[in-house]
Amino acid sequence: MKNAAALLFRSEHDSSSDATRIFMPSSSSEIDSGIEKKPLIPRTTSYGTSNSSSKQKQRRRRVASETSIVTLSLGGSRQSFGRMTIAPSETFLITRLTFKLLTYLGVGYRWIMRFLALGFYAFLLMPGFIQVGYYYFYSSRIRRSIVYGDQPRNRLDLYLPENKNGAKPVVAFITGGAWIIGYKAWGSLLGLQLSERDIIVACIDYRNFPQGTIGEMVQDAAQGISFVCNNIADYGGDPNRIYLMGQSAGAHIASCTLLQQAMKQSAGETTSWSVSQVKSYFGLSGGYNLFNLVDHFHSRGLYRSIFLSVMEGEESLYRYSPEMVVKDPNTRHAVSLLPPIILFHGTDDYSIPSEASTSFAETLRNSGAQSQSILYEGKTHTDLFLQDPMRGGRDDMFEDLIALIHAGDAEALARDVSAPPRRRLVPECMLRLARKVSPF
Fold first, then answer.
1. What's the rounded mean pLDDT across residues 364-388?
2. Which residue out of 248, 321, 367, 438 is catalytically annotated?
3. Which among 290, 382, 364 has a CA at the least distance from the CA of 328?
4. β-pairing, 278-284 with 237-247?
5. Catalytic one among 220, 226, 373, 381?
6. Tens-place pLDDT, residues 96-113
């Protein structure tokens, strides 16, 4: 992917499908116009399966100069020493599971190179990780490691806005990590960003392989979502404005969880939370048809034998492929219970191709669900979640997400227009080099 310059206009062009949008760079001659326009997202009201005859209005957006700054919200007093002792214990847990994982992977040339690339990639982004980590451990606006269940790693982190007036919208977020290195702290950058926009974020941790398989991951996610739905009002959240979001493997886990919950309700089972409590589902760079991804992952180093172990065997691929489950005519009633589903993806994503999102969105629409995919031209698997946010200013995916969450709230939308751009966390040269060496 070519990284964007410090000042850049972007325009949105509709594709042939009324439910897929691709953002592409506009001509460089527009950079000198000096006009800054806040993007509008009319598509939030254009769900459905029928083709719309009206044309979407073209919109342009200008990414702020990298000299624009906004104070990183590290405010609040430091946490107590007792609370800080959680960090070493969690570090030990991650280290122990990493070594256990290596016994499954073996120490082949390909994995050695990938681990080296991952280490160099993390080193290049370290300036951003240090700042976000400081915020994560010292901010009084984070409630870390809240227990939501009785299984290992049944914990979640809450990111609370500084403004405590009124009930806030809530995003329950399932982090990615290839089903083997996921961790709730990976969502701290997103939690920081959204809490600055008056949104509560709950980053839900879950058991990874080999500590657990996909069944346990879905079970943990369901318990975490249940905790959010039933307790978020105690933390200032609005139980009527809860959004579910997942990234990469987390998007797969969250979609499986949502669909299985809908199937339980359709069968008349008693549940601790309802899919009707989820206002919308946002999937970021996710995979939803495992049959199409087994060989792809194998070629990229997540070997077939390991992947099938994570997914509880080849016979379980159907059950944990949301796209295949939605195609089953017997699940039509369960699919009708699903909330609107919006899938974000970069066109240069080589970890999980963007076709995973466009195909799933089309399958959902064909089955009567409200769904759309939003594509970002030239963006990779990590651009949308790491490099772009650390670049500062404004980025398309984040602004689209905010607009969807605040849709219908005129006051919140007005605050978004005047919100200062985020400050840069990592120098541009390091971001570009990190993108080249990224193992994802």
1. 95
2. 248
3. 364
4. parallel
5. 381
6. 655 555 555 554 566 677
* 163-220 pLDDT per residue, tens: 888 999 999 999 999 999 999 999 999 999 999 999 999 999 999 999 999 999 999 9
Using DSSP bridges, classify how beta strands 237-247 and 168-174 pair: parallel, antiparallel or unpaired. parallel
Q: Is 248 a catalytic residue?
A: yes
Instruction: With CA atoms as reference, report the closest residue to 177 among 135, 206, 219.
Output: 206
The mean of the pLDDT values for the chain is 82
Averaged over 46-64, what is the pLDDT?
39
Q: Is the pLDDT of residue 83 over 80?
A: no
> Cβ distance 307 to 294 under 8 Å?
yes
Q: Both tokens of residue 77?
A: 């007093």
Spatial CA neighbour of 213 closest among 302, 307, 110, 135 = 307
Record the pTM. 0.77
User: CA 192, 160, 254: angle at the middle one, nearest 5?
Assistant: 70
Q: Does the annotation mark 381 as catalytic?
A: yes
Q: Which of 157, 198, 349, 383 is catalytic?
A: 349
The per-residue pLDDT for range 225-260, each reduced to its tens digit, is: 999 999 999 999 999 999 999 999 999 999 999 999
The residue type found at 97 is L
